[in-house]
Specification:
2 domains, alpha/beta, 226 residues, eight-stranded mixed β-sheet, 10 strands, two-stranded antiparallel sheet, Glucose Oxidase, domain 1
């Protein structure tokens, strides 16, 4: 098979995917050092949509979906298609027919730096799709691309097999080798945030770090307080 298509790569395990899926994208982004989040131009087609799984990477020329068809045929159940469509919004790369094929093959969802169409029908399918928006124009199917290679999607490098986790806030990419080490920090952050929210509801609304940070920024002089 062409060197443009990498069929075999190591994926994050289903067990780690299941554990990671319980967290918000925001939690992973914070624990990973506030990095790995795709540009906000790529967002859920509907806010309720969520997906987590190993990235199955696809690179296409703007407005051409030939390699996406190939990717649907090659992806494994549980994979998430991550498509570098160059941010193009002049035509849709996928619609109901292709999304139905993805759903039928057990592909967990689609994340694309490009546009989609048939959005109302995809909504009725309740299939997780994240895109830069919609456009009724259809794509061409003429130009080669790459599958299974590193891609740039929403300004983030995505390697095949990395974890992608997406929800109403956006999409976070976690390198496969880092995932297991970050999950304990995610648990701790959820616990810490729950404690802080409980304190706020009891009337303790002032952030403990605020005064010192205002002094460090020169907003307050030493000895001053809000």
């Amino acid at each position: 098979m062409s060197q443009d298509i990498v069929r075999d790569f190591e994926r994050v395990s289903p067990e780690l995917v299941a554990e990671a899926a319980q967290f918000q994208a925001a939690i992973f982004s914070d624990v990973a050092g506030r990095r790995g989040a795709m540009h906000g131009r790529i967002h859920a087609l509907r806010p309720r949509m969520k997906v987590a799984g190993p990235a199955f990477t696809v690179e296409v020329r703007p407005g051409d979906n030939l390699m996406i068809h190939a990717a649907i045929a090659l992806a494994q159940p549980g994979d998430v298609l991550v498509i570098d469509g160059k941010g193009d919004q002049t035509s849709a790369l996928m619609g109901t027919i292709m999304m139905t094929a993805c759903q039928q093959r057990g592909i967990a969802g689609v994340i694309m730096d490009g546009a989609v169409r048939d959005s109302l029908e995809i909504d009725e399918m309740d299939y997780p799709v994240f895109s830069v928006g919609t456009n009724p124009n259809g794509p061409t199917k003429n130009i080669g691309g790459r599958i299974g290679h590193p891609v740039s999607c929403g300004g983030v490098t995505v390697n095949a097999g990395d974890l992608v986790l997406a929800d109403a806030d956006g999409i976070v990419v976690v390198e496969r080798a880092r995932l297991a080490g970050l999950i304990p920090g995610c648990h701790k952050k959820v616990e810490d945030e729950a404690k802080r929210i409980a304190q706020i509801k009891q009337g303790n609304t002032a952030a403990s770090w605020l005064q010192a940070s205002l002094r460090a920024a020169g907003v307050l002089k030493e000895g001053e307080s809000l």
